[in-house]
Amino acid sequence: MEKKKWWQKAVFYQIYPRSFADSNNNGIGDLQGVIERLDYLQELGIDAIWFSPFFSSPQKDFGYDISDYRTIDPGYGTMKDFEELLEKAHSLDIKIILDMVLNHTSDEHPWFLESRSNTTNPKRDWYIWRKGRGKKQDKPPNNWRAVFGGNAWKWDKYTQEYFFHQFLPFQPDLNWRNSAVQEEMLETVRFWVEKGVDGFRLDIIHTLFEDKDFRDNPRSWRLLPSSDSTAYLFQNPKYTAFLPETINMCIHIRSLIDSYVPERMVVGEVMGGPRIFRPLYGENNNGLNLVFNFKFSDQSFSAKKFFQVIQETESILSDPYWPCYVFSNHDKTRMISRVGNNEKKAKLLTLLLLTVRGTPFIYYGEEIGMHQGKIPKEALKDPLAKLKVMGIPIGKFLGRDGCRTPMQWDNSSGNAGFSPKLDTIPWLPISTNSDVINVENQKNDEKSMLSYFKQLIHLRKSENALCEGKLLNLSIPCKNCLTFERLGYQEGKLVALLVIFNFNNKLIQIQNPYPSSTIIFSTESLNLLSSTTDNITIQAYEGLLTKFSFESVS
Ligand code: NOJ
Question: Yes or no: is domain 9-106+176-377+403-456 CATH 3.30.450.150?
Answer without folding.
Answer: no
